[in-house]
Amino acid sequence: MKKTKTAFFGGSFDPPHCGHVMVVSYVLSCTECEEVFVVPCFEHAFGKPLSPFDARLEMAKTAFSMFQDKVKVLDIEAHLPTPSYTVQTLQALVQTYPDREFFLVVGSDILIEIEKWRDFSRIQSMASLLVLRRAGSENIGGSGPVFPDVSSTKIRMMVSRRQDVSDLVPKGVIKIIRKRGLYAN
Questions:
Q1: How far apart are CA 135 and CA 149, in angstroms?
Q2: 39-48, 85-94, 137-146 — which is least confidently predicted?
Q3: Cβ-based neighbours of 177, under 8 Å, separated by 6 or more
Q4: Which of 47, 101, 132, 148 has the greatest count of CB atoms below 10 A from its CB?
Q5: Could you tell me the CATH number of the domain that includes residue 109?
Q6: Is the dihedral of CA 119, 120, 122, 127 positive or negative?
Q7: Residue 158 falls inside a structural domain
Q8: Confidence band (pLDDT; 50, 70, 90) for 1?
Q9: Nearest-angstrom CA–CA distance, 146 and 176
Q10: What's the 3-state SS for 144-162?
Q11: Neighbours of 36 (CB within 10 A)
Q12: Which pLDDT tens digit goes with each residue over 34-66?
């Protein structure tokens, strides 16, 4: 039986931005992946504070809705032990979706942090790495175009200062940020 080639794209998505959308568009149009599973992390492995999970899940669903059934935003990490580790999420995905062949999407900036990841060799045994070049670390490795170095941290700061983020964040996500009063500290 032929397995569906599926990209696993995890992250905080706090908030999801144009860089994330560009990555999904590239993966679907220029790689062998037939679908993308977007997985917002429930509790960051390095203890980074995050907005409420339900808000990040709603923003991710909105940001990637244009891709229709080619992208599934999954809440799988809400049902796994915390903190969220890629290895345990990938293991759960492999068990839940045995008809998929997984590709883990990472930015080239992450390559220098691989030793910090829990059980990276096991991750590689369950999924092929799909390393994409990101501005500022494009010389480290990866493939495809150089994706912009858009930062969710910078976007949160801009929102808190009431600066315009409309060229960085999907319109529907901006509506959710305003409706929920996110990043308004």
A1: 5
A2: 137-146
A3: 15, 59, 159, 169, 183
A4: 132
A5: 3.40.50.620
A6: positive
A7: no
A8: confident
A9: 29
A10: EEEECCCCHHHHHHHHHCC
A11: 24
A12: 999 999 999 988 778 999 999 999 999 999 999
**Does residue 157 lie within any of the structural domains?**
no
Q: Give the chain's domain count.
A: 1
DSSP letter at 65 equals: G
Give backbone dihedrals phi and psi of 22, rounded to 5 degrees, phi first: -60, -40
Burial of 123 (0-12, 13-18, 19+ CB in 10 A): buried
Residue length of the chain: 185
Two structure tokens written together for 14: 């706090």
Structural domain containing residue 54: 4-149
The number of beta carbons lying within 10 Å of the beta carbon of residue 152 is 21
> Residue 78 falls within a domain, yes or no?
yes
